[in-house]
Recover the amino acids of this structure.
């Protein structure tokens, strides 16, 4: 291997240790690498919490631990997509506020496979207590009233 290839391999191993749960490469302090990995996971969890506030609020002080456990073996895809993936994985246990947050995201975006999400122009979906309608870039929750 050339020196450039050696450096590239060492950098790839360090990145894997920091963000993908890989082993600490030779020549690095495992304690410091683990601390940096925790800090990066905290940053990732904080970014997802800002993009998905109701989802993070559901877990309260446990958010960091719950998200880190779920995200440990998943590559980062950006705060919005990480939150979307997390919310879909926990769809059945979401309380109404977080479920509505997920519904509003899914009303605005569609995902086909692993590619980038695409904006929806029009969509409807049922929501707790109503119907969510998205049209022309705006979402509205139309409440359903029970008949007497």
């Amino acid at each position: 291997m050339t020196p450039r290839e050696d450096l590239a391999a060492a950098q790839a191993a360090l990145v894997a240790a920091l963000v993908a749960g890989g082993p600490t490469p030779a020549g690095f302090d495992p304690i410091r690498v683990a601390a940096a990995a925790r800090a990066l996971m905290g940053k990732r969890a904080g970014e997802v919490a800002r993009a998905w506030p109701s989802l993070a609020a559901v877990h309260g002080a446990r958010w960091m631990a719950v998200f880190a456990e779920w995200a440990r073996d998943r590559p980062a895809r950006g705060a919005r997509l990480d939150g979307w993936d997390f919310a879909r994985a926990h769809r059945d246990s979401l309380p109404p506020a977080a479920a509505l947050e997920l519904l509003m995201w899914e009303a605005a975006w569609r995902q086909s496979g692993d590619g980038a999400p695409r904006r929806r122009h029009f969509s409807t979906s049922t929501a707790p207590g109503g119907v969510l309608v998205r049209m022309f870039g705006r979402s509205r929750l139309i409440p359903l009233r029970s008949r007497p």
Notes: The chain has a mean pLDDT of 86. Residues 30-51 form the longest helix (22 residues).
